[in-house]
Amino acid sequence: MKYRKFGKLDYQISVLGFGCMRLPTRDNKPMSGDIDEKESVRLIRSAIDRGVNYVDTAYPYHNGNSEIVTGKALGDGYRGKVKLATKSPLWFVTAPNDFDKFLNEQLKKLQTDHIDFYLLHGLDKKKWEKTVLKFGLLKKAEAAIADGRISHLGFSFHDDHKSFQPIVDGYDRWDFCQIQYNYMDTENQAGTEGLRYAAAKGLAVIVMEPLLGGRLAAPPQEVMKMFEKYGTKRSPAQWALQWVWNQPGVTSLLSGMNSMKQIDENLQTAELLSIQPLLPEDLKLIERVRATFLKRAAVPCTKCGYCLPCPQGVDIPGVLELYNNGVIYDDMAISRFIYNRFFPENERANSCTECGQCEEKCPQGIKPGKLMRTIHEKLK
After folding, report:
1. What phi and psi values does residue 180 have, to the nearest 5 degrees?
2. d(Cα 82, Cα 116) in Å, to the nearest integer?
3. Is the peptide bond before 309 cis (omega within 30 degrees of 0)?
4. Rounded CA gap, 125 and 357, in Å?
5. HSE toward the beta carbon, residue 255, CA cutoff 13 A
6. Cys bridge to 19: 209, 243, 254, 307, which one at CB 3.0-4.6 A?
């Protein structure tokens, strides 16, 4: 296992962290609450025995059961071998005292008296202003640090880049942040610009979704052939992980490993960091792969937002992006899950009345109104 310094802290973190959002389940439904506890404990402990020293979970993962199983996995002395990270469920926080209520509940579920790295979960502009600042949660977190329930404070992020920098700059005691990042998300959310900004400020940067929910591990056939024809042989997952590790500013990445095969391959990939680092021509291959993915998009939307606001409230760029992602990665299931789980009903495609206002504003000549009914049928 390889290790890197954790931002400004005197701590070396394994470049591979264990993410507990996709533990094996007995009903074979990804991320369901029916976790295969025995197998999950075996996998987590195996990874720790082989050098992984950072374990990440969160309050809502596996319908609230991930923290419970993670706590059991860290019994029998394993808690002392790792740094444990979990997250405050901000969408449930409606009053200042909710912060402590959830934190204390999490400590019990995790069977520990302290959390090493505590994150404000899923920060965006709205949660930062309307929850964190409004309810004084930074002061609440500082009090929890003072009494020993938390060691270090950070945040995970899901918004556009223009919202990222104000959050980084909005508090001078952040120790780390967690961002979605992979070779397809260089300009989405925090992106490369946000990664480098946070690292320059001294924050450790933990990367989530390095395989984009598994999509980069099982690419469409035309992308797979590009990897197979290339001189250096790596699996698509190995290419994706090494690309992330190759980026300046990345401290560690999280992988939701739900089989021993995945653990074996990811550990092997981590070992390749010094043995077989990415070369300039390798990075050019990834750029060609990225371009090939993007060419598969069904709708040429650039997310410029000129089509907004929609009179009916439809999130036109968001809907088009979800649909495009399903086509690009040949996996509509993840897009369908996000659409039905996270999109408010009034923002979905079926709210469209085909009024035509968006068509008049779109610089790409897209006619969203003509697409929305079909897209809704694909995503519902």
Report:
1. -80, 125
2. 9
3. yes
4. 27
5. 34
6. 254
Domain boundaries, the chain: 3-285, 316-379
Residues 233/198, Cβ–Cβ less than 8 Å: no
- CATH superfamily of this structure's domain 3-285: NADP-dependent oxidoreductase domain (3.20.20.100)
Token match 């409230």: residue? 313
166: exposed, middle or buried (C-beta count within 10 Å: 0-12, 13-18, 19+)? exposed
pTM over 0.90: yes
- The three state secondary structure string of 317-339 is HHHHHHHHHHHHCCCHHHHHHHH
d(CA 47, CA 85): 16
CA–CA gap between residue 150 and residue 319 (Å, rounded): 38
Largest CA distance in the chain: 64
Q: What is the pLDDT of residues 284-314, one digit of tens each?
A: 999 999 999 999 999 999 888 999 999 999 9
